[in-house]
Amino acid sequence: MALIDSYNFKGQKAIIRVDFNVPLDKQTFAVTDDTRIRGALPTIKKILADGGSVILMSHLGRPKGVEEKYSLKHIISCLTAHIGREVKFADDCAGTSAEKMAADLKAGEVLLLENLRYYAEEEGKPRLPETATDEEKKAAKADIKEKQKAFTKKLASYADCYVNDAFGTAHRAHASTALIAEYFPGKSMFGYLIEAELKAMDKVLTQAEKPFTAIMGGAKVSDKILLIENLLNRVDNLIIGGGMTYTFIKAQGGQIGKSLCEQDKLDLALEILKKAEAKGVKIYLPVDAINADAFDANANTNTSKTNETPDGWMGLDIADESIKIFSNVIENSKTILWNGPMGVFEMDKFAKGTTEVAKAVARATSKGAYSLVGGGDSVAAVNKNKLADQISYVSTGGGAMLEYMEGKELPGIKAIRG
Ligand SMILES: Nc1ncnc2c1ncn2[C@@H]1O[C@H](COP(=O)(O)OP(=O)(O)O)[C@@H](O)[C@H]1O
Ligand SMILES: O=C(OP(=O)(O)O)[C@H](O)COP(=O)(O)O
Fold it and tell me: Is the CB of 21 under 6 A from ligand 2?
């Protein structure tokens, strides 16, 4: 694996693709969770300590052009505080000012480029009005590929070597995550964050100590189906919670009231249960739930068996008996993978199940289990409960982690690994 440890950056300009797609306060634009920024620091510091200079490039959000609210200028003060030195800012990642600032950059200096996605070239997809004709679409598609090449070449021209440390974006085949590597033969490498992420995921996928328990939650089965299928070949226990529970319960003939259900995935749910049985994987579905009469933080609530949800009510969290069963399985595991909350944890009334699962994972970890948590919402739940330092590894990737764990090759990884 091409890693930065074996590289001396003295006198080198390194362009680093980081994932600074961080949440910002809607009013003040202050960074509300700096996990991804902190995650990139070891790489930045190593390069500066070697006597190199650093050019940071990232996207923020999904802008459709220049949109002030997605400017990376909002993260400068947070980044400066973490790096402990001035961060210069180029307000157009592919403009002449960026070119000049990169050329003038001295050893020990840091330059941050404005949001890469202000340019359609980054993603390589044309941005056309809805009214565009098929012919216009076809022409724009061909055109953007050429423009993307020029854009990539421009970014590459700023530096002597390329480091990819944007794990959260490694599943995107974009200019800065994948295409740029070819401009740095023998000088493209992974940063410490990507290295750590790959190590954590590979440990769980290939060297899991048993019993291995996966905890899957979140809203929909359809989002997690490929991961569940891949995990059935590896885990001993599969705990299912969150909204996806109800597709499984309904498929087995249970009463689910107006709980979330993917009607077109009922057969699939039964198939998963059958496959699990054939492979000797024990599936744990919640046996009881906290129900609400509306999807609302102030809704009325009651508790019922999961398969006896009263008409007009929806299950929004797992209840005490399920928490007890799940916690027991988790605490008796040696490897734990958790992706997706157990309920609508954003609302206090429906947060207990997720909090208790987070605590059980932390307890198991303190007893020697290896735990890996990924997915924006599960990580948010871990952070909300201040348990991040009690988990073996908290991933900075949502979609990227899911795809890697599904067994897919990530473009950002392939571009460097070959
Ligand atoms: N029982 C439920 N009914 C409806 N939505 C749910 C339920 N349980 C969890 N959710 C929702 O699922 C969402 C998280 O799903 P997902 O994006 O798959 O998780 P992650 O970001 O951890 O991968 C949360 O917004 C949460 O409110
Ligand atoms: O936040 C991200 O993904 P995630 O929400 O799946 O963790 C990454 O920055 C990728 O962003 P994208 O999904 O807009 O390509």
Answer: yes
Q: Which domain holds residue 83?
A: 4-195
What is the Cβ-side half-sphere exposure of residue 401, based on CA atoms within 13 angstroms?
Answer: 25
Whether residue 95 is found in the same domain as residue 135: yes
Task: Could you list the residues known to form a binding site for ATP, using ranges.
Answer: 224, 315, 346, 375-378
The 10s digit of each residue's pLDDT in 251-310 is 999 999 999 999 999 999 999 999 999 999 999 999 999 999 999 999 999 999 999 999
Residues 125-155, buried b or exposed e (16+ Cβ, 10 A)? ebeeeeeeeeeeeeebeeebeebbeebbebb
The domain that holds 64 is classified in CATH as 3.40.50.1260
Given the structure tokens 């906290």, which residue do they identify? 290
R_g of the chain, CA atoms, integer Å: 23
Q: What is the average pLDDT value for the chain, to the nearest integer?
A: 96
| CA-closest candidate to residue 395, choices 351, 330, 340 | 340
Statement to judge: residues 260 and 293 lie in one domain: yes
**Whole-structure pTM value:** 0.92
Q: What is the percentage of the chain residues whose pLDDT exceeds 90? A: 92
**177 and 284 both lie in a single domain:** no
Q: Is the CB of 374 under 6 A from ligand 1?
A: no
Quote ipTM for the complex. Answer: 0.94
At what angle are helices 221-231 and 266-279 packed, to 10 degrees?
20
Residue 267 lies in a domain: yes
Tell me if 410 is assigned to some domain. Answer: no
Q: Is residue 355 located within the same domain as residue 289?
A: yes
Domain count, the chain: 2
Describe the crossing of helices 320-331 and 352-366 by its angle, rounded to 10 degrees. 20
Residue-wise pLDDT for 301-341, tens only, equals 999 999 999 999 999 999 999 999 999 999 999 999 999 99
Q: 24 and 61: one domain?
A: yes
Backbone angles phi, psi at 311, to 5 degrees: -55, 140
Contact criterion met (CB below 8 Å) for 375 and 401: yes
Q: Which atom of ligand 2 is nearest to the CA of 402?
A: 6
* Dihedral of the alpha carbons of 304, 305, 306, 309, in degrees to the nearest 10: -50
